[in-house]
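Why does residue order matter? Because the sequence determines the fold. Keep that principle in mind as you read this record.
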Amino acid sequence: MQQLARAGTVKRLWAKDESLWPHTKGQKQLITNNLNWLDLPDQIGPYMVRAAALAATTEREGFRDLVFIAMGDSNLAAETVAQSSVPQRPQRFFLLDSTDPATIRSVSEQLDLDRTLFVFASKSGKRIETHALLLYFLNRLKMHKAAEPGRRFVAVTEEGSYLSELAQNYDFLGTFLDPPGIKGRYSSLIHFGLLSSAVWRLDPQELVMRAKATRELCKRAADDGNPAAELAAFLAAAEVSGSDKLLLLSSKGLQASTYRIAQLVGASTSKGGQGLIPVCGGLPGASEGALRGCVAAVLKMRGVEDAELATTEATLKQHYVPTVTVTMNGPEDLGAELFQWEIATALTCSLLEVNPFDEPDVQEGRERVSALLDEYVAKKIWPARTARVREKGIELFAEGEMRQHISTLSLAEALRTFFEAMPTSGYLAIITFASSSGETEAVLGRIREHLASSYGIPVLLSSGPRYLRYFEQVYKGGPDKGLFLMLTSESTADVAIPGAGYTFGQLQTALALADFESLEIRRKLAMRLHLTQGLELGLAEIEQTIRKL
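Structure:
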């Protein structure tokens, strides 16, 4: 806190001083553009009023279902809305942020296409997953003989983006243009403003008032009760002292918001082998070892009782885990609270001397996806890889650093030696690129709890491709303490992407292979298990094997 006060960091932030963070000459414009996020409290009012008006119009025209499609940051705002108990005006609200064929088919088959509105959110519109889903649903409407299919779509994007061009060409019902150049993780006021006013039908003026009140609090001097400065000091002190794992906990209705904060803090701070590693999804196996090197943030809604969260808080207190607690008065506070976290994160990055607005470790992986798909379309085969173990429908792949650490005598021996390779004060990330269900999620939860308890480590569960938008920068650019287990499986009933030359299942495979290669290139300790008999059977075998180790 003293460092923030001495350097006048808060005042310099609001003056949009790019020198707060290290950057190359070519990155100055990136920082300048992103700092316009500080002006959003003055800009979101008309945006929300227009969103509320469009929502009322679609309701009058008989739209019953709303499908929100995004692969970036806005889907976490949408998931918060979907999980909330606040009354919603669309009779049914769907969030689709997956390329998994079974998930796409499940959502698609539930829709009444005559009464469905599709909202596509993408800053650029060039993300291959979002574009593939746009092609798919446009084709479905055309096959359905829908009159003017473009009038069933709304775009949330930036001016001049590829998605804005598509919206114009297809005559979308509406287009909402974000201020240009602001990263999605610094756009909470836009995303929550849009969804709060359109889905929850909250008063736009009330939301603006809360955002402006938060801004005024966060403009105070660092040592004058500035909540963002206090949070920044907490986060920076944790990272500098080696407590670089940030546990983000909440009551059930706010879980998606913890992931939103995780993506914000993790992607902003994780550069050059330093930063904060966010851990979401509860506190399984909460041993002293698993909590060592951790700090925690707890999100609550006033008046909401949660016995499980209360037990978790007691555990944190018992193990002396430094904790901050954020209590909101109602859903109207969500956008403003996340705006405060954005300010705190930018201040944290100034203290840690990292640029909060770049993502130096992700672009190469996205380019690799395109190259893999081009090769697959031309040759109809994926690049050859050698399976180190084949056992009970599971194929094990490991190269580079990992190949030197694991035994290939059996699956059990491979897993045992894999877990023994855990870096000091490390964490395990299980990354799943496969069809999931309630049953498989439960198995993954049991595996997570068993490993966390047995090895005394935090275990992170990540689902592809959404993980690529949330934690890719953390895993590849953050502290080099991770052990990465990727799970892939065959698509049992694939879904074609119109005009693409490949399917959604093949797109998901390309995303997984590209990510695994990217981890290997960075000399990360990574192993992939391909489940040839599907995720359900494969997970059952993995769980049984792990429990015998």
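The CA atoms of residues 66 and 93 lie 5 Å apart.
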